[in-house]
């Protein structure tokens, strides 16, 4: 599911996000050459309809190129990044 006509990123899914999507990683074409991380959740949900991904993303954090993101509104994706969905982990 890759589109070579424009910028793309690699999205990594872990824990509940992996269970919801059924995949560990995915190449995602960005709809524009400058795309805000805060919009990525909606894009991913549209790529995985009829899953619990939307609810999972509301409680998850993001990392971009192995760096945890504090405020997703301040991160712009330009293509080539590796973005991970970091789901909360419950201990026991």
UniProtKB/TrEMBL annotation:
Task: Give a short account of what the protein does.
Answer: Acts as a sulfur carrier required for molybdopterin biosynthesis. Component of the molybdopterin synthase complex that catalyzes the conversion of precursor Z into molybdopterin by mediating the incorporation of 2 sulfur atoms into precursor Z to generate a dithiolene group. In the complex, serves as sulfur donor by being thiocarboxylated (-COSH) at its C-terminus by UBA4. After interaction with MOCS2B, the sulfur is then transferred to precursor Z to form molybdopterin.
Query: Which pathway does this chain act in?
Result: Cofactor biosynthesis; molybdopterin biosynthesis
- Give the 1-thioglycine positions (modified residues): 92
**What broad taxonomic lineage does this protein's source fall under?**
Eukaryota, Fungi, Dikarya, Basidiomycota, Agaricomycotina
**Which keywords does the record carry?**
Cytoplasm, Molybdenum cofactor biosynthesis, Nucleotide-binding, Phosphoprotein
Query: What are the GO cellular component annotations?
Result: molybdopterin adenylyltransferase complex; molybdopterin synthase complex
Q: How does it assemble?
A: Heterotetramer; composed of 2 small (MOCS2A) and 2 large (MOCS2B) subunits.
Species per Swiss-Prot/TrEMBL record: Rickenella mellea
Q: Summarize what the UniProt record says about post-translational modification.
A: C-terminal thiocarboxylation occurs in 2 steps, it is first acyl-adenylated (-COAMP) via the hesA/moeB/thiF part of UBA4, then thiocarboxylated (-COSH) via the rhodanese domain of UBA4.
Q: Cross-referenced SUPFAM superfamilies, in alphabetical order?
A: MoaD/ThiS
Query: Is Cytoplasm there in the keyword field?
Result: yes
Protein name stated in the entry: Molybdopterin synthase sulfur carrier subunit
Asked if Phosphoprotein is a keyword of the record, the answer is: yes
Q: Which family does it belong to?
A: Belongs to the MoaD family. MOCS2A subfamily.
Q: Which GO terms describe its molecular function?
A: molybdopterin synthase activity; nucleotide binding
GO BP annotation list: Mo-molybdopterin cofactor biosynthetic process
- PANTHER family attached to this UniProt entry: MOLYBDOPTERIN SYNTHASE SULFUR CARRIER SUBUNIT
Q: What is its main location?
A: cytoplasm
Q: Tell me the compartments it is located in.
A: Cytoplasm
Which residues are modified to Glycyl adenylate?
92
Q: This protein's superkingdom?
A: Eukaryota
